[in-house]
Design goal:
This protein has about 325 residues and is of the alpha+beta class. It folds into two domains: about 120 residues, Rossmann fold (3-Layer(aba) Sandwich); about 170 residues, Tumour Suppressor Smad4. It is globular, with a radius of gyration of 19 Å. The two termini are about 35 Å apart.
Length: about 325
């Protein structure tokens, strides 16, 4: 598609993922398009065609002069747009205003910032343009013998969390998904997962050495369709929040699964929490990674915080 020049500085570029929400993006986009027109929103739009396309589109539209970008998709599309913002070198990251009309299956970033799931109400939030400057995370990981960098703005998961995300994503590609599918895999994959020995350093100091089950590094609180695995996360405090599930009986995980949703999981004796600006993780076997629901590579990991660099549109 030919490059589109921004109509004027206040125009929005809608980046639409037709596959979001198990093709919900395809089904609902005509109605969202009409609502945007009815509400008098000044916008153009581009549609993604493949995984990673939103990263490319974001870089292109920023070069074309757009400074307001709205994701019409889910957390994975939002993650791609974030990476497009962070990888471009035209303007400062915070000079882009990033909004969202949630069409995904989990929409966990929107839960953090009270962006309504109702399309018309989400458009009203976009029009009000109340902004918040949030942190972003940067993780360096291994993939096919190369070191790769990825940015995230919600939650990164490792170990069992990454396994569940991978299985969920494979079903999404076949047109099956949703928070209940994620929850199903939380239990269905439990007894095939093996604990892995890992060393975790926080800001250069040893924080943990031993077998781990699962781990989350969060900017925001929610993941997995409403789970609150990093309940102490503050999105603009300049710190990464870590929740670690150590080796424990897998039946204990089943017993206390409800605590994943109310944040009280961290009260259990086999849970550890940390805060820091830099997290380093190495392991004897491969520990896999997902960021904002997107399945990536494996250990070793280096996490860094980028304080107050993403300008987002939030609800009340």
């Amino acid at each position: 598609m030919a490059e589109t020049k921004a109509l004027h500085p206040d125009a929005w570029m809608m980046i639409v993922n037709p596959n979001a929400g198990i093709k919900k993006g395809t089904k609902d986009w005509p109605a969202i398009l009409q609502l945007l027109r009815n509400e008098g929103v000044d916008f153009e739009y581009r549609t993604t065609a493949h995984r990673g396309h939103a990263i490319e589109i974001t870089s292109e539209v920023i070069s074309a002069g757009y400074r307001n970008i709205c994701v019409v998709g889910g957390d994975g599309t939002l993650n791609e747009v974030l990476n497009g913002i962070m990888n471009q070198q035209v303007i400062a990251f915070s000079d882009v205003t990033l909004g969202m009309i949630p069409v995904g299956t989990g929409n966990d970033w929107c839960r953090m910032f009270n962006v309504p799931f109702d399309y018309l109400k989400a458009i009203h939030v976009l029009k009000q343009k109340k902004t918040f400057l949030q942190d972003a995370g940067k993780v360096t990981y291994s993939h096919q013998e190369k070191r790769v960098v990825r940015y995230f703005m919600n939650v990164a998961g490792m170990g069992y969390d990454a396994l569940v995300a991978k299985k969920t994503n494979l079903l999404k590609e076949r047109g099956i998904g949703g928070p209940l599918i994620y929850l199903y895999f939380v239990f269905a994959s439990l007894f095939q997962y093996k604990f892995i020995e890992a060393v975790i350093e926080v800001d250069g100091a040893m924080a943990y050495k031993g077998e781990i089950f699962s781990m989350n590094v969060g900017i925001c609180k929610f993941n997995g369709g409403g789970m609150k695995q990093v309940p102490f996360a503050v999105p603009d405090d300049g710190l990464l929040d870590v929740t670690l599930i150590k080796r424990t009986s897998k039946w204990m995980v089943v017993r206390y699964a409800r605590k994943l949703f109310d944040g009280t999981l961290v009260d259990l004796p086999f849970i550890a929490t940390f805060k820091g600006e830099n997290i380093r993780i190495r392991s004897t076997g491969k520990v896999f990674l997902e960021t904002d629901g997107e399945s990536l590579g494996h250990t070793p990991f280096t996490f860094e915080i980028l304080a107050r660099c993403v300008n987002v549109v939030v609800g009340n």
